[in-house]
Amino acid sequence: MKQGFLASASPLTKLIFLFIIAFACFGIIFIIGTIVGLVLFDINIFELSAVLEDLYNPNNVSILKYFQILQTIGLFVIPPFILAYFINRNPKSYLNFNKKSSLEIYIIAGLAMLLALPLINFFADINSKMNLPESLSGIENWMRDKEVTAEELTKIFVHAENFSGFVLNLFMIAILPAIGEELIFRGVIQKLFSESFNNVHWGVIIASILFSAFHLQFFGFIPRMLLGVFLGYLFVWSKNIWIPIFAHFVNNGAAVTAYYFLDEETVTKNLEEVGATNETAIYTIVSVIVVGFLIYLFRKKVAEENLIKTN
Prior knowledge:
Layout (H helix, E strand, L loop, with lengths): L10 H30 L4 H9 L7 H27 L3 H4 L8 H13 L1 H12 L8 H22 L4 H35 L2 H15 L6 H18 L3 H20 L2 H6 L11 H30 L1
């Protein structure tokens, strides 16, 4: 198998190249995409900055979604393939696209993700009550402002007037991030830190911390980090990048679907509170037991498949 010029480089060098590639890809995609967008949306370049900052104008939502798609492709989807090619002339092999798993394994991973909702809500509720010392009140206020902005932007993005809007949201919020973020954080960063520390557990933990930190939602940091840990171990156990991609898609896709088929109040007052209140604590306990069993079942099925393939 042919090796790229980064094949023998240290994990740190590969990580630096990843950031350089991501920065360059984002710049190129953004410039080209902006030129296309100006024509597509018939806006003046001098108006673009004001348009992107005006989140509450419904006429700007399509433009915001367009640039969100560009960002995901430029930062997450393309860079892992380029770096993988520089390491191994068969990028699909380096990124673990070649491993095949049974439908049963995908179903178990997806169910575990869905049934972990009460547990995620439980940690989200704890995280949301975080308070910094008085001396850091300025930082806390900034963090809460970022949280509010992120929540408002999410609500704007998940709103869909019709089915075509729903499909676009699935593509933008569920499919693209699932592919791009898993390739970057699990397929590359987790792998590089695992190599650096010669320990897969450190790789999973560090990649999960970076995964959560990237989203800049500090009062949702813990549940998102734990989500990253879960996705990271799915990758470690299966050696198949499609498994965490699918589980990530299920998580995001479920939220997009809920917002489309249910009203916003039902989602925020019912689904997001399951497991986060004293009245629904039983669901958190059940979630821990069921998800724990599904993880056990997942590892058992993966081990059985690996045994069959080696015999």
